[in-house]
Write a structure and sequence with these properties.
Elements (H helix, E strand, L loop, with lengths): L1 H7 L1 E2 L5 E2 L2 H26 L3 H21 L5 H29 L2 H29 L6 H20 L7 H6 L3 H12 L6 H17 L17 H16 L3 H14 L6 H25 L2 H27 L4 H24 L4 H7 L7 H30 L3 H19 L8 H10 L13 H19 L2
Antiparallel strand pairs: 1-2
Catalytic activity: myo-inositol(out) + H(+)(out) = myo-inositol(in) + H(+)(in)
InterPro entries: MFS_dom, MFS_sugar_transport-like, MFS_Sugar_Transporters, MFS_trans_sf, Sugar/inositol_transpt, Sugar_transporter_CS
Subcellular location: Membrane
Length: 472
């Protein structure tokens, strides 16, 4: 946006201003640096203040960061510091919200609700593109202050809205607040507290939590211990986030306008960006169904194949066509880039966008869940930061061939998922823990059946028989 470039760019020597690749990288990546710190920081608040309390705290921090950005006049330092502070909240909430959703949702709906989390993110990105498209030609700071300042409203909305939601019943049980957990479970299932269903669910959860939480206070080092295959689970969460960030979609999200301008498509780059945002929203909707119909494992395997093909074709065809001196050939090359960028983003939105967050929210025992999710989220934001910092510099040198990097990562992702990522569809969080403890091979995990709840019910029946024997 011209006003933004004038305020935060550098003189171009011709009486105008330019936002160099270095400044673009600094402004964009500082938010990602904050998200990395915030994702780790939430682990210290999630257990101490509960899931609700943590969401409130980090929402306030995010709102402060967006306020600092909106109030910036022409200070590059102020806007980058504001983005870093806002990033603290974004990173923390990116870990707490899947954690909260995963602990609160019934297992039959957990995948769908965690995909809904991703859908809301994509809808937000799409709305931001539309707002940018509508304001970018305003010849004043309104062009960028409106998109930045509107974030304050959403921060305040989350700060206030969290008071109307229940605390995680698993967190309550894990901290000995059984009466409150009973009340929450009754509310979530729409039945009275004395309903037999509530007693059964509380008993099953308490039995499983006690089984998985033996060993005292959890530490960060335990996330990588051999106990209950925790090191495998933590590594899987981190690797899925690493692969997700190097899928290539965030390159389009962050630098699409600049990249498509260089591609000489003849289309307004911000219009292309808005199209990509709409495609993302459209693509995430089928994931609400596929996450439970196909499962987690098949979804990411399919996505890796489709996205890899898009990256390969767009990278090679775009490179050779754009290298031509023929304007018509250049335009065709740009059209190819846009077409396969759309297909790439569509495939990502259906598969790799939501599934890693679903997996992260359902793979860890309660005692280390906040810490393990923090490590996965922090990995996501670390590579988000590295991508946002280095991508514009790499693309400036090799152009569309940067997509070949993403192609290689998607091939690696397919192999990794096949060898190491098990299917968790239809399992409770406690049954996922049982599957890992049983050492089930990932390629056989879809047909595995849990026994944990059977043991809990058998114990419950045995206790009832003992009580009957002891009664006069």
């Amino acid at each position: 946006m011209p006003d933004f470039v004038r305020r935060f760019g550098e003189p171009d020597g011709n009486g105008g201003f330019v936002l160099s690749a270095d400044r673009q990288a600094i402004i964009t990546s500082l938010l990602s640096a904050g998200t990395f710190v915030g994702a780790l920081g939430q682990a210290f608040t999630s257990d101490r203040f509960g899931r609700k309390g943590s969401i409130f705290i980090w929402s306030v921090i995010f709102t402060i960061g967006t306020t600092i950005q909106t109030a910036t006049v022409n200070s590059l330092a102020q806007i980058t510091i504001g983005r870093f502070i806002a990033g603290l909240g974004v990173g923390a909430l990116s870990a707490i919200v899947p954690l909260y959703n995963g602990e609160t949702a019934p297992k039959a709906l957990r995948g769908t609700l965690l995909v809904l989390y991703q859908l809301q993110i994509i809808v937000g990105i799409f709305i931001s593109y539309i707002i940018d498209l509508g304001t970018h030609k305003v010849p004043s700071s309104v062009s960028w202050r409106v998109p930045v300042g509107l974030q304050i409203a959403w921060g305040l909305f989350l700060c206030s809205g969290i008071f109307f939601l229940p605390e995680s019943p698993r967190h309550l049980l894990g901290t000995g607040q059984t009466a409150q957990a009973t009340k929450v479970i009754a509310e979530l299932n729409g039945v009275p507290e004395d309903d037999p269903l509530v007693a059964e669910l509380v008993g099953d959860l308490q039995f499983a939590i006690n089984a998985e939480n033996e060993g005292g206070k959890a530490t960060w080092l335990e996330c990588f211990s051999t106990r209950n295959a925790l090191w495998k689970r933590t590594l899987n969460g981190m690797m899925l986030m690493f692969i997700q960030q190097l899928n290539g979609q965030n390159f389009y999200y962050y630098y699409g306008p600049t990249f498509f301008s260089a591609a000489k498509t003849g289309l307004d780059p911000l219009a292309i960006q808005a199209i990509l945002g709409g495609v993302s929203v459209f693509g995430t909707i089928p994931a609400l169904y596929l996450i439970e119909a196909w499962g987690r494992r098949l979804s990411v395997l399919t996505g890796a194949v489709l996205e890899a093909l898009c990256s390969l074709i767009a990278g090679l065809v775009g490179h050779f066509l754009l290298a031509s001196s023929n304007p018509d050939t250049n335009k065709r090359g740009g059209d190819v880039l846009v077409a396969f960028a759309v297909l790439h983003v569509l495939s990502f939105s259906i598969f790799w966008g939501p599934v890693p967050w679903v997996y992260l929210g359902e793979s860890f025992p309660l005692r280390v869940r906040p810490k393990c999710i923090a490590l996965g989220s922090a990995t996501n934001w670390l590579w988000n930061f590295l991508l946002s910092f280095f991508a514009p510099k790499i693309a400036a040198k090799i152009g569309p061939l940067i997509l070949m990097i993403f192609f290689g990562m998607l091939v690696f992702g397919y192999v990794y998922v096949w060898l190491f990522i098990p299917e968790t569809k239809g399992l409770s969080l406690e049954e996922v823990d049982e599957m890992y403890r049983a050492g089930i091979k990932p390629w056989r995990s879809a047909s595995w059946k849990p026994h944990l709840l059977e043991e809990a019910h058998e114990k419950h029946l045995a206790d009832e028989r003992n009580e009957q024997k002891l009664s006069p």
